[in-house]
Amino acid sequence: MTDHIRQQALTLWEYHHLNHSLTKADAILVLCSHDLRVAQRGAELFLEGWAPLLIFSGGLGVITRHMWSEPEAELFARIALDMGVPAQQILIENQSSNTGENVLFTKQLLEQHQLEIERFIVVQKPYMERRSFATFKKVWPGKDVLVTSPQDSFDTYLSQYTNPALTPDDVISIMVGDLQRIQLYPEKGFQIPQPIPTEVWAAYEALIQAGYDRHLATS
């Protein structure tokens, strides 16, 4: 990776972060994916006492359906159990295949359990904080939500990535695709709008020119 590419990718990385300061919540909602570090972050927050309920949401998505045979949420929940989270404090939603479904199906799950949750801490990959927030506020308006992620720097995240099936270049391509979705999805009704600064869009276009376009939405 050249210094120029790294700088453009870092611009996107920083934009995707919301840098929310955490406060105690009613539930921690972990949006599952290919990144097992997210499961660890969710479990750590529970064990630190940020909320009394830990929810894992995720079936098999675009990436993980080619990697695993079991739902993401089941795998993530086992990680939390191994870290000491009591089973009775965990809820699992294992049918969703995208971020919007993560939120919608979790809403339905909580309704089935007759649980009224007003304040959430959402845990997601570092480069999906902003899109997760925008999606949550569209699908479930009126709830308080803070978003966090594994507390790694950009370089540390890429060098210590927990899934060897994805290279640093793959991660950058995913970040590019997520920025495109932030721009496109409000018109489709999937997310609330998010401002995209000129320098962030310029970095996005530079990365596409450099070939980081493998995870762009096709429609």
What descriptors fit this protein?
219 residues; alpha/beta; Rossmann fold; 2 domains; five-stranded parallel β-sheet; 5 strands; 11% strand; globular; Rossmann-like_a/b/a_fold; Cell_Envelope_Assoc
Notes on the structure:
The protein is an alpha/beta fold. The chain folds into two domains: 3-14 and 154-209, no CATH class; 19-148, Rossmann fold (3-Layer(aba) Sandwich). It has helices at 3-16, 36-47, 72-82, 99-112, 129-139, 154-159, 168-188, 198-209, and strands at 27-31, 54-57, 90-93, 119-123, 144-148. It has a five-stranded parallel beta sheet with strand order 3-2-1-4-5, sandwiched between helices. Strand 4 (119-123), helix 5 and strand 5 (144-148) form a beta-alpha-beta unit. The chain is globular. The two termini are 29 Å apart. The mean pLDDT is 92. This is YdcF family protein. Residues 26-144 form the DUF218 domain.
